[in-house]
UniProtKB/TrEMBL annotation:
Classification via InterPro entries: DH_E1 (IPR001017), THDP-binding (IPR029061), Transketo_C/PFOR_II (IPR009014), Transketolase-like_Pyr-bd (IPR005475), Transketolase_C (IPR033248)
Example of a GO biological process term: branched-chain amino acid catabolic process
SUPFAM superfamilies, alphabetized: Thiamin diphosphate-binding fold (THDP-binding), TK C-terminal domain-like
High-level lineage: Bacteria, Pseudomonadati, Bacteroidota, Cytophagia, Cytophagales
Name the UniProt record assigns to this protein: 3-methyl-2-oxobutanoate dehydrogenase (2-methylpropanoyl-transferring)
Source species, domain of life: Bacteria
Required co-factors: thiamine diphosphate
Gene Ontology MF: a single term: branched-chain 2-oxo acid dehydrogenase activity
Transketolase-like pyrimidine-binding domain: residues covered: 356-532
Root EC class: oxidoreductase
UniProt organism field: Adhaeribacter radiodurans
Annotated SMART domains: Transket_pyr
Coiled-coil features, chain-numbered ranges: 285-315
Length: 692
């Protein structure tokens, strides 16, 4: 798109100029107020000083059918959308009535569902990471338009706002790749102040964002003078029109000066030197003032506006300072959105049902979901038409439901996971797959920063409904990068749920519950159980439950019971385990007839621990078994908690058994079996415990 070099200010209404002017002055007055009251404004904050023109010009293009991901400097953008100084100051001071988070997250971190305003989902502080959820929103718009769920006439678009420093983050490239690949209606606005805290542009990159965008074939691009409101407004109007009408992506590179501190904590006098004087020459306020005078406003009229604003900002600040603090007892609220699935229901074993493998149970569950929910879609590497998943776990789904709903993604784990935050915000119901648990790590950043904290930090406005399928586990020489267990790492992330079924019926019932859960659910599927090919795993196959069958998350179950007389005689114990552990325990239990109860956790978080305590109480002895290396694992921490709670009933310490503590599952099968637990090792542990 051609650069705009000749803005025609006369074409713009004076009204818009005046609106922009009063909001610019408001932003400046707010920044000055915060500066003058540093003791009161104790929480770290950034202001938009210098960036006001481009931000207001952008805000004025957004409608109530649009979506936006902003960044921490977009204060003037929020004023442009109509938020009052008082509302913004409530967040500055982390007050109870902060409309975005109730005092949980910093200034300039909006989350918005308000009639007439664009939807703005959870905003993390991680630079550049919003590019993926933003692109996910655009992807969802495209998908829901194709499904006839979002009307095309709305011409909804997504705005993704970024700093220039943020653009060099790798995840921004994943987002841009997807935007051009799928030709998504999104505007990437890069506010280039040539700083990334104290690093100059020349230290951070060999090209600016406009030049960088050239590498993304099909990405339209535009340069704007972001310090000039008229230029910015004309340019952004064209950029939005392009995305709305062509339904394609565009990147706008807006140069603007940074006139304030990087943040209240990193102050300009420490590193800016003379550059601040130079930057002041591009202050958007005097530029707009001159344009207003040229358009017929008098200096006296402009001064009157300024006086009114100063008074308004001062009043807002006084009110915000005395607004109530949040009630500390509310910290527990909104860790998760409530799930509708709280009871097992439907038919687990329908008459005449055939036995099904775990992999097919998963496939059928997804198929039934896709049939019932037109807003559901399934994507990941190789799940599309040609292959249907490397385990054939998605076989024929794309053929049946179309490439819009079931498709291959590029090799972009961050996008696969992070896009679900955007998808969910727009109303799609994403099911995604990470090909192997060992490759979850590139997606973990998005899982932590964008998904897991979203419900909590937006006070329940943006729970991320997504189901993340992850084949996991070791068997038969899969080697160090196709065998890893990762549940302990996942379980340190608050705000997600983790499921780990061990048989086909649970696979299907839990998958339905996971899909319907309004929160992020990571669904771990053991590759060694998929087809029950391994000796001793025959029981992983089960009669296929009916389509209505559902198992709530968080409920462990008993899979083997011990005899009453053995319990009475104190000759029994309970093995608490999950996944492949169930089959090692079943095999081992054969040597201890009637003495062993086995409990399958099924869900690792949430987890009904009272159910486990009761089981331990029945026996006075418990073995906790996992496939993970034991040291600092989930199972060790569970054992610690259960030991404290069951101390009075225990006849022996709670024992734990897992893999050897080595950094990877070695390739050679002799080495692999030395590392992993097996039935013999479990039998030894049981024997030891029974004779304790
Ligand atoms: C992932 C991540 N790394 C580091 C930081 C610390 N940090 C905060 S702002 C910032 C500089 C960002 O510069 P830019 O994107 O140009 O935005 P600007 O503040 O200049 O508007 C850095 C490094 C962060 N917030 N997130
Ligand atoms: Mg910058």
């Amino acid at each position: 798109m051609a650069n705009i070099t000749q803005p025609k200010s006369l074409e713009l209404y004076l009204k818009i100029l005046l609106q922009a002017y009063s909001r610019m002055l408001t932003a400046r007055a707010m920044a000055n107020t915060y500066e003058q009251n540093r003791q009161i404004c104790r929480y770290v904050h950034s202001t938009s000083r210098g960036h006001e023109a481009i931000q207001l010009a952008t805000a004025f293009q957004l409608s109530g059918h649009d979506y936006a991901c902003l960044y921490y400097r977009d204060e003037a953008m929020l004023l442009g959308l109509g938020f009052t100084p008082y509302e913004l100051m409530l967040q500055l001071l982390a007050k109870a009535d902060d409309p975005f988070s109730g005092g949980r997250i910093y200034y300039g971190h909006p989350s918005v569902r308000r009639e007439g305003l664009p939807i703005i989902p959870h905003q993390s502080s991680a630079t550049g990471m919003q590019a993926i959820p933003a692109t996910g929103m655009s992807h969802a718009i495209r998908f829901l338009e194709a499904q006839g769920i979002i009307p095309l006439e709305r011409q909804s678009v997504v705005l993704c706002s970024l700093g220039d420093g943020a653009v060099t983050e790798g995840e921004v490239s994943e987002a841009l790749q997807m935007a051009v690949l799928k030709q998504l209606p999104i505007i990437y606005l890069v506010q280039d102040n040539d700083w990334g805290i104290s690093a100059k542009g020349s230290e951070m990159r060999a090209m600016d964002a406009y030049e960088f965008a050239q590498g993304f074939k099909g990405l339209e691009r535009m340069r704007i003078d972001g310090s000039d409101f008229v230029h910015s407004f004309t340019g952004m109007k064209r950029a939005f029109n392009y995305a709305r009408q062509e339904r394609k992506p565009i990147l706008v590179h807006a140069k603007c000066p940074l006139l304030g501190h990087h943040t209240s904590g990193v102050r300009k006098e420490w590193y800016r030197g003379e550059s601040i004087e130079l930057a002041l020459k591009n202050d958007p306020i005097p530029k707009l003032q001159a344009q207003l005078v040229e358009a017929g406003e008098t200096i006296a009229q402009l001064e009157e506006i300024e006086q009114e604003i100063l008074q308004l900002v001062a009043e807002a600040f006084s009110r915000a300072v005395i607004a109530p603090e949040p009630d500390p007892t509310t910290i527990y609220q909104h860790d998760f959105a409530p799930t509708p699935i709280v009871q097992e229901s439907g038919t687990r074993h329908p008459i005449g049902a055939a036995k099904v493998t775990m992999v097919d149970a998963a496939l059928h569950a997804i198929e039934e979901i896709l049939k019932d929910y037109p807003e559901a879609l399934f994507y990941g590497q190789d799940v599309g038409k040609q292959l249907g998943g490397v385990f054939r776990e998605a076989a024929l789904l794309a053929a049946k439901y179309g490439d819009e709903r079931v498709f291959n993604t590029p090799i972009q784990e961050a996008y696969i996971i992070g896009s679900t935050a955007g998808m969910a915000a727009v109303g799609a119901k994403p099911i995604v797959e990470i090909q192997f648990a060992d490759y979850m790590w590139p997606g973990l950043n998005q899982l932590v920063e964008e998904l897991s904290k979203s419900c909590y930090l937006t006070q329940g406005k943006f729970p991320v409904q997504c189901l993340i399928r992850v084949p996991i586990g070791a068997y038969g020489g899969g080697g160090p990068y196709h065998s890893g267990s990762i549940e302990s790492a996942l379980l340190t992330i608050r705000g997600i749920k983790v499921v780990y079924p061990s048989n086909a019926a649970d696979m299907k019932g839990l998958m339905k519950a996971a899909f319907l859960d309004p929160n992020p659910v990571v669904f771990l599927e053991h590759k060694g159980l998929y087809w029950s090919k391994l000796p001793g795993t025959e029981e992983a196959k089960s009669y296929e439950p009916a389509a209505d069958y559902i198992v709530p998350l968080g409920q462990p179950c008993q899979v083997v019971n011990a005899d009453l007389d053995k319990k009475m005689q104190g000759e029994s114990l309970v093995v608490i385990t999950y996944g492949m552990g169930i089959y090692w325990a079943r095999e081992a239990a054969k040597g201890f007839k009637g003495q062993i109860e086995i409990i399958d956790l099924r869900t690792l978080y949430p987890l009904n621990e009272a159910f486990l305590e009761e089981a331990i109480q029945r026996h006075g002895k418990a073995l906790l078994l996992t496939e993970e290396p034991l040291l600092n694992s989930f199972i060790e921490s569970l054992a610690g908690r259960l030991s404290q709670k069951c101390f009075r009933y225990l006849d022996a310490p709670i024992l734990t058994l897992g893999s050897e503590n080595v950094p990877a599952v070695p390739l050679n099968i002799c080495l692999e079996s030395k590392m992993l637990p097996n039935a013999d090792k479990v039998a030894k542990a049981i024997n030891h415990l029974l004779h304790y």
